Every structure is written in C-alpha cells, then in structure tokens.
Amino acid sequence: MSITFLWSRELLLNRYFLWLLFWCNLLGTVGGYVWYDDQLAYTWERYPHWLIVFVPDSPTASLFFTIALLFLLFPPASKGWTVLRYFVEGLAVVTSVKYGIWASAIIFAGASQGGTIGPLDWMLVASHTIMAVEALVYIRFFAVRSAGLTFALLWTLLNDLMDYTYGVNPWLPRELFDDVPAVRNFTVALTLASAAACWLVMALSRRRTAGN
C-alpha cells in the first residue's frame, strides 16, 4: 500500500474506513470521559455546577470530531443542519489539534522536570497525536467555513479562561504544579496557533481544489 493511497480521497472517504474511524473515535471519547471521572466528580462537589462543561477538554474535542464524521457519512440536506455542521466541524478541528498537541506537550514537560513516562503516558501521547493529525487531514473534506473556525476559536479561548480562572483545567503532572502560569500562557498561545493552522490548511486545500 503506497503512502499516496494512505492519504488519498479514495481511502479517507471510503465509508468502511469512515465507520472504522467513527467507532474508534467514539470509543476513545467514552474512554476519555471515564478518564475524567474523578475530576468531574471533584468539580461537581466543589465548584458551581455550570463549570462541569469546561472540565473534560480532550474527550469533548473527540466528541466533536466523532459527530463531524457522522456528517461526512450522512451529509445533511436541510439548511439548519448544514449550518450546525459548520460549527461542529470548526470545533472538531480546532479543539482536536489544540488538545491533541497540548496533552502530549504536558506529558513531556512533566518528564523534563523529573517525571517519568510510563506505558499509559505513551498511549496518551499516541492517541492525542492521532487526534491532531486526523483533524488536519480531514479538514479538507469538511464543509467548515471561516465563521465556524472563528466560533471554535472563541469557544476554546473561553474554555481556557474558565480553566485557569476557576482552576478547572485538566489536572497536571505533579512536576508542573508550580508552573501553572506558564502552562496557562502556553495553552492560550496553542489555542491561537491551532486555529491559525486549521484556517491555513482549510484555505490551502480550498485553493488547491479550485485550481484543479
């Protein structure tokens, strides 16, 4: 199997392959929410309940991408569903790139300060890297528009604000407990960079399609 075929429209839009990706992402999403179980319970008991939506960052990103795959499998016919698709796909790509990179970076940052990287950490690095890659690969097939990416950027910045204002950010490795301001700054910068990267990939893919 050639590298070209692995990245081809023929494979990536094959319905069997899309269903495989859908189930893998759905299972990963469920596993992600289970992973956050302790922090969700902790937040529910000690914080205003409305903050609970800002806690499970990565699984919510994966959920958006899973729904985006359903839109590829079953393109909506009505205008209302099509508009919803734009915003879901915007959230899917921006948050998947952002949290995919963020989780891996935090694991390595903790290790650089004396932490260890065990098998579970490597699994998290692999799964989150895939999140970021698949979002950048599939954005060329999504119907997302600039408005959807802008909405996703604003939502993700709001998520950052809630995380580091109220302290509901994902729990960090012990080695980074004294680096929260630096983590916050990195997180916001990564949100901006992820949105910019998604917009650039979308623009380039649309330009290439228009030129063919």
Automatic annotation (TrEMBL):
Q: What is this protein called?
A: DUF1405 domain-containing protein
The residues forming a coiled coil are none
Tell me any Pfam family this protein matches.
DUF1405
Provenance organism: Paenibacillus terreus
Give the top-rank taxon of the lineage listed in the UniProt record for this protein: Bacteria
Q: Keywords assigned by UniProt?
A: Membrane, Transmembrane, Transmembrane helix
| InterPro entries (UniProt xref) | DUF1405
**Membrane-spanning parts:** 16-36, 48-74, 86-110, 122-141, 148-166, 186-204
Give the lineage.
Bacteria, Bacillati, Bacillota, Bacilli, Bacillales
